[in-house]
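Technical annex B. To support the medicinal chemistry partners, we prepared a structural model of the target in complex with protoporphyrin IX containing FE, based solely on the information shown next.
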Amino acid sequence: MGHIDGAEVAKHDKQKSCWIVLDSNVYDVTNFVSEHPGGAPIILRHAGTDATEEFKKYHPLDYLTDYLPADARLGPVDPGTFGQLRQIKEEKAVKASDSDSSHDLPHLSLCVSATDFEQAAKAVLPHKSYIYASTSANTGLSLKGNLDDWGRIHFRPRVMRNVGDVDPRCRILGHESPYPFYMSPMGTMGAIHAGAEPEMYKGAVRKGIHAVVSTASTKSSEQIMQRYVEEQESMKRASPTVLFYQYYMPVDRTKAIALMGIVKKCGYKGLWITVDTPVLGKRTADRYLQAEEAFAVGLEESASSWETGGDNAFAPAMGGRPVQGQLSPHTTWEDLVWIRKEWDGPIVLKGIQCAEDAKLAMEYGCDGILLSNHGGRQLHTAPSALMTLCEIRTYCPEVLKKLEVFVDGGLRDGNDVLKALCLGAKAVGVGRPFLYALGAYGSKGVERCVDVLAEELQTGMRLLGITSLDQCRPSLVNASRLLNEMYRPDQFSIKSKL
Ligand code: HEM
Ligand SMILES: Cc1cc2nc3c(=O)[nH]c(=O)nc-3n(C[C@H](O)[C@H](O)[C@H](O)COP(=O)(O)O)c2cc1C
C-alpha cells in the first residue's frame, strides 16, 4: 500500500466522501459515517484530519479492525505531509497531566468545597465533556430534587459528648473503608481526562476509598483492574480500596454471561446491577448539543432519527446514538435467579426507587440495594434517594437490617453523609464531584475532593455529638419535611409483589 498525501486526505472532508486519519493510517469512512453509534456529526467534524487523539478518548484502536471493513483502510499517510491535513479549531484539550498551570484553573488549594470542582472543570473541559458530566433528564427536576433533599433534612445535635477523637471508618460489603462514602460508577471517563478511569482510581487508591467501575468505561475492565493492581503495588498494598463492578445487562444472554465471567476473572469484589436504565433517559443538554452539531455539518434532518433511542439503548451519553443490544430493556426479577448461579459474590441492585422494590430485592436474596435515580439522568421527577430511604424506614424497615442499603445522588457536603447514615443507610455514593475534580486536576483533584468530604464529615460528627458511625441514629435528624411528602398507600403496608 502506497503512502497517501495529507493534502489529498484533506480534500475528503464531506459526507459524500469522508476520509479520516487514525493511528497514522487513512480510512475511507464514507459508508460508516451514518452508521457510527457516536453520531455522524463527530466524524464529519474530524473528516480530513488526524483524529487519533480524539478517537482514543472514546475507543480502543481495536475498533478500527472490529467495526470497519478491511477495505476501508486506504494506506498510511505520507509522514512528511501530516501538516497538510485539514486542521480544526482546537477545543480546550482534556488535560493529560495533573498540572494546574492553566490560567483558567484556580489553584487546587482554592477548592475548599466539593462544589468548587464543578466551576474548575467547567473552565477547562471541552464544552461537550462538561455537558456529558453535568447533563440531567428532561427539565432537570430529578437532579434538582437530589440536590435539594439533603437540605430538607436537619440535624438534631447532642452537645457535651467528648468528641475529641472521632472514628469515621465503616465496612462496605465486608471491606473496610476509611469513610462511609465511595466513588459512584461513571462511564466514558476518557472524555473527562486523558488518563480516564485509571487516573480516577489512582486517586481512590491513594485515599483508600472504594469505587464502582462502570460497564461503559473508556478503558477495558482488564486494563482498569491491571492499573489498579499496579497502583496498589506502588503503595505496597497499604490501601484498603477495592473495586466493585457496575453491570449493565446486555440483551444477549451469552454476552451477559461472558461479561460476568470477565468481571469475575478480573477480581472485582461485587456486582452492582443497574436497574434504573432499561432505556437511556432523555438527557436534554446532550440533545441540544447533538442537534447543534448535526446542524453545523448539515445533518439536521437525520438528527431526529437518533433521538428516539430504539428499545435497547446503551447508557453512554456523549451524544452517542443508542447501540442495539448493549443494554437490555427486557430484564426482570427472574433474571436474578440465573445471575445468582453465575455470580457467587455480593449482588447490589443499583437504582431502587420505592419501598416495594426494596422488599423484592430482599426476597430475591440480594446483598445490597443502592437507592438512586442515576444522578437525575433517567426518569423525569424521580424520587431522591433520601425520599426512598424514608419510605423503606416506614414501610419495610426489615430491609435495613437484612441488606446493606446505599444511597446516591446530589451529595455535595460530607456532613450530609451523616443524615443518610442516621436514617439507616450504610454509605453514600458520590458521582459528579469526583468527575469534575478528575477533569480539572486529574487524580490530585480526586484526592483533594476525598479530603474535603472527609474533613466535613469528621467535623460534622463532632458537631453532631458522635464519635463513631454506629452512633448514627434516627433521633439525630429531623426528616419531617420529607416524611410529610412521602408516598402514603391506602393501607399502612406495601406489598412487594407486582
Ligand atoms: C472511524 C472509526 C470509528 C469507529 C469504528 C467507531 C465505533 C464506535 C462504536 C462501536 C461506538 C458505540 C459505543 C462503544 O462501543 O464505545 C461509538 C461511539 C462513539 N464514538 Fe466512535 N467510532 C469511530 C470513530 C470515532 C471518532 C473519530 C470519534 C471522535 C472524534 C468517535 C467518538 C465517539 C463517541 C463520542 C461515541 C459515543 C460514546 C459515548 O457516548 O460514550 N468515534 N463509536
Ligand atoms: C457522567 C456520569 C456518568 C454516569 N455513568 C453511569 C454508568 O455508566 N452506570 C451507572 O450505573 N451509573 C452511571 N451514572 C450515575 C452514577 O453512578 C450515580 O448514580 C450518580 O452520578 C450520583 O449522583 P451525583 O452525580 O449527583 O453524585 C453516571 C453519572 C454521571 C454524572
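Notes passed to the chemistry partners:
The chain has two domains: 6-84, 116-485.
Confidence is low (pLDDT under 50) at residues 93-101, 303-316.
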